Amino acid sequence: MAAFVIRRILATIPVLGMVAVIVFLILRLTPGDPATLLAGDNATLAQIEEIRRHLGLDRSIVVQFVSWIGHLLRGDFGESFFFKMPVAALIADRIQPTLSLALMTLIFTIVIAVPMGVIAANRRGTWVDHAVMTFSVGGFSIPVFVLGYLLIYVFAIRLNWFPVQGFKSFDAGIRPFLSHLLLPSLTLSVVYIALVARIARASVIEVLNEDYIRTAYSKGLTNRVVLTQHALRNAAIPIVTVIGMGVALLIGGAVVIESVYNIPGLGRLTVDAVLSRDYPTIQAMVLLFSFIYVMINMLVDLSYAVLDPRIRY
Amino acid sequence: MQERGLIQTLLGLAATAALLVSTPTARAETTLRIVMHSDLKILDPTWTWAYISRNYGAMVYDTLFALDKDLKVQPQMVDTYTVSDDKLVYTFKLRDGLKFHDGAPVTANDVIASLKRWGARDSWGQQLLEFTKSLDVVDDKTVRLTLREPYALVLEALAKPGSLVPFIMPARVAADEQITDTIGSGPFIFKKDEWRPGNKAVFVKNPDYKPRSEPASGLAGGKVAKVDRIEWISMPDPQTAVNALLAGEIDVIESPQHDLLPLLEADKNIELRAASKRGQQYMLRFNFKFPPFNDERVRQAALASLSQINFLQAAVGSPKYYRTCQALFGCGTPLAEKVEGDFLLKSDFAASKNLLKEARYDGKPIVIYQATDVNSLNPLGPVAAQLLRKGGFNVDLQAMDWQTLIARRSKGQTMAPADGGWNIFLTTWAVEDIMNPIVSVALSGKCDKAYYGWPCDEKIDAMRLDFAKASDLAKQKKIAADIQSHAYKFGFYAPLGEWTGPSAWRRGHVGGVLEAPFLVQWNISKK
């Protein structure tokens, strides 16, 4: 197991290396010039050129790349072109909102989607199953920003139950923290719940047809024990896989949700950086998201061994 | 059974959510929360032309002179000043008690360093310094500016409201290339430790600020901070900002999107008013470097095709917030000059086609850049394309985001339209930034050193210089009228009408919003 973990961690290095080269080149090839944006609309070309020199953008792409990689290897993500602040500090400042949003969304998803899928499978063909499937299709179809605005209108503006926007850190108290996070997490989790509930239903239905389930029933085990201890456990691998894969969905959704609910997280930092062509920040964010994604996939792989004793690394 | 338990769990979760029903967040009574037109990114208002940095500068710094609401120059940091009979020597004496946020007094050295820094970057500042023989310290509080030859716009330049503004900074700060120091002497102190880029910027009242005794007027008069703390909340989604204002989570939106105004107008708790009654003027700019707009007749053909009302209806919508205006220096300004006839008010497609025939326009597509992500600019491109097509042009409308547009725009100096360059782009200007021939950079004819489009016209630069030397308003008006007439004949650009963007705030909670070129935040009170 330890050797597997070490191998997987080492395998992230070439992946991140590739990502670094690709993101660096794509940014340089994409139209847009941070110096022009920094200067503003009335700046002359000479003034823009001066800013470009100041940012080091007048150097060749190779020199810029070597300089960036050199700093990166020393753990330095560079300085934001716009904010004149270390990118690491910007990320550190934004990580709590996004992490809170992601965790809350995951909790909602696991707590709601898995039971929904199991119930739908157990009641296959009944109105409960149809309701879960309808929710699943609807949840998957509705754009996340539309759902966000709908929930804001109903729960924040009409009912005044929750704030419209913003984020309060955990230090501000559990109540403001949760009240600011509930609606965004719920909005983001709907698509995720729809996806996981569907997979959970399909996996459990497949398992329920297995011989050992029939054996379990014939031994006189209750429906609950059969479902939770036999069916769900054996259906867990596809469910965990889809939860892991769904992190990409979550990252994409967080970008939208953080804008709709005005949450100052990593998603918004990424969008702002892209719109303003803040190269050091974009590069760091893409690397960070890649690293997170690779790590989550590794955790998913590791969880297989826990869920299925036959799997050994 | 187990399903019932599960349903109970779900209901329990819903109940927990209901228990977390929020109460309004506790906050100081005098904290004003404002959503500005964009996020504050750069803390150096003499480094960038971005309006948000200018607005930040107005909070943190002060100026020697300022424009009142009628655009008249008034002393601000200056207590008294004298002008020699030959109009060559200006002596400025600073007010008593002016202090920077770190407690250091504002001195003549600070003033000189700041003006030199500003003059090295701002086009008007450059012209002023070109006319300046010397800037000298007379004593700690007195500065002497000696000119080589009379320059009529000394005070106007020092009161310039649009980017770049001649803000007075500490001399040690003004020496730096791009500053991150935020020490100024203005009515508010920037809380750099609380600044969260992309989230919020915080200002607190400067307890040592000594406002002038005159009532606040425009950017002039007593800058009295009436709230203890101001937070600029960054909200990239305009709908979220409107929702937050309706829910009372913020107090002011500086520039709500025009298509969201009906939502705000429908709420009796919201007040809408434009800080600047002059607003902004749309502009269609030609690229003089490449055919066909290197030919004056083709430019005239384009001007004949255009009609301001089409642009204004598409981009602004409600007539409450727009007006047609043929005056190149803005309607309602001292130099506003009427134009005879329907020029730019009514399209004359037949005249356009005749001019194109005369110029032997070869039918090659003209490239128009359209900024799709800037709500106030997005509709302009398609309207221009439609009108120009009717006028006989073959049009290639290219949609892109604003960032791409401004990057590609600068390449249009050397890159032909067929290779990615452009023939036309559209933008908007605050009227205060075009209100005279000097500040209006689009009227420069200095070829490669001119504003995007790069027209070559020695005559207009000579006329602009005459304007700068004109000794009184009557002469200035005459020259400005001549410049306008010449600029239209030459076809520098097409003004496409004026529009205002009202600010929105909570009625009864927020008061004292001043009429000024932009939303100034002194004098604003909050209940």
Compact description:
The complex is a heterodimer of chains A (313) and B (527). Chain A is mostly helical and 313 residues long.
Give the SSE map.
The complex is a heterodimer of chains A (313) and B (527).
Chain A lengths: L1 H28 L4 H6 L5 H11 L5 H13 L13 H36 L4 H15 L2 H15 L15 H35 L2 H8 L4 H38 L5 H10 L3 H29 L6
Chain B lengths: L1 H18 L11 E5 L15 H10 L1 E2 L1 E3 L5 E3 L2 E6 L5 E6 L13 H12 L3 H9 E8 L2 E6 L6 H5 L8 E2 L2 H4 L13 E3 L9 E6 L23 E5 L4 H9 L5 E2 L7 H5 L4 E4 L6 E7 L9 H10 L2 H8 L6 E2 L25 H10 L7 E6 L8 H11 L4 E6 L1 H10 L12 E7 L27 H12 L3 H18 L2 E7 L3 E4 L3 E2 L13 E2 L1
Parallel strand pairs in B: 1-12, 1-13, 17-18, 17-19
Antiparallel strand pairs in B: 2-9, 3-4, 5-6, 6-8, 7-8, 10-11, 11-12, 13-21, 14-21, 15-19, 15-20, 16-20, 22-23
Helix pairs in contact in B: 3-4, 9-11, 14-15
What's the overall average pLDDT of chain A, rounded? Answer: 87
Contiguous low-pLDDT stretches of chain B (5 residues minimum) are 9-27
Give the N-to-C terminal Cα separation of chain A. 5 Å
Helicity level of chain A: over 70%
Enumerate how many helices of chain A there are, as a single number: 12
SSE order of chain A, one letter for each helix or strand: HHHHHHHHHHHH
Q: What proportion of the residues of chain A form beta strands (DSSP E)? A: under 5%
Counted beta strands of chain B: 23
> What is the makeup of the main sheet of chain A?
none
Helix content of chain B: 25-40%
| Largest interface in this structure | A-B, 68 and 61 residues
Judged by helices, strands and strand pairing, the structural class of chain B is alpha+beta
Shape of chain B: globular
The proportion of residues in beta strands of chain B is 15-25%
What is the typical, i.e. mean, pLDDT of chain B? 90
Shape of chain A: globular
Number of helices of chain B: 15
How is the main sheet of chain B built? 7 strands, mixed
- The unreliable regions of chain A are none
Q: Roughly how many Å is the radius of gyration of chain A?
A: 24 Å
